[in-house]
């Protein structure tokens, strides 16, 4: 017995598939920095700057008036106990900076039994968030990765870094903790 598929049904299926593809494409931010950082709106890292700013909320918009408070590196604390305490790498990155993005901080970090982080070895000094004026909000993403190598982390002298290449080149594949805040200057 020969079966035929009605033309209308086949046409509808193709049209629905194309529509679905378009909708998915519109909803997904395809930037490489976002893909590599894997920030999904859920933070398991607490970031605290000095008073009166204090502890930031995950995804918080930091007011421009508080910008001066961002000039000193924050205190970091993981919100869940870590089973991994060594070979951890802290990265603070702005994926919205011109070019491939901007690395604000890179260091080896250790966490104590209370989850409080201490910088063990600075690779790139903390550079405070200073987005270009009138460039809109920039996302500042702080991530903790486990290093899979027994060799030092390497990065170019420039702070303009292709984040995906940096992660790949240094075998930073295991994301341990992440946090994001936003800041803009007018």
UniProtKB/TrEMBL annotation:
Pfam families noted in UniProt: PBP (PF01161)
The answer to whether the entry has keyword ATP-binding is no
User: Keyword set for this entry?
Assistant: Signal
Family matches, as InterPro entries: PEBP, PEBP-like_sf
The reply on keyword Ligase is: no
> Please, which domain of life does this record's source organism belong to?
Eukaryota
Cleavable signal peptide: 1-25
Q: What is this protein called?
A: Phosphatidylethanolamine-binding protein
| Annotated source species | Arion vulgaris
Gene behind the chain = ORF123283
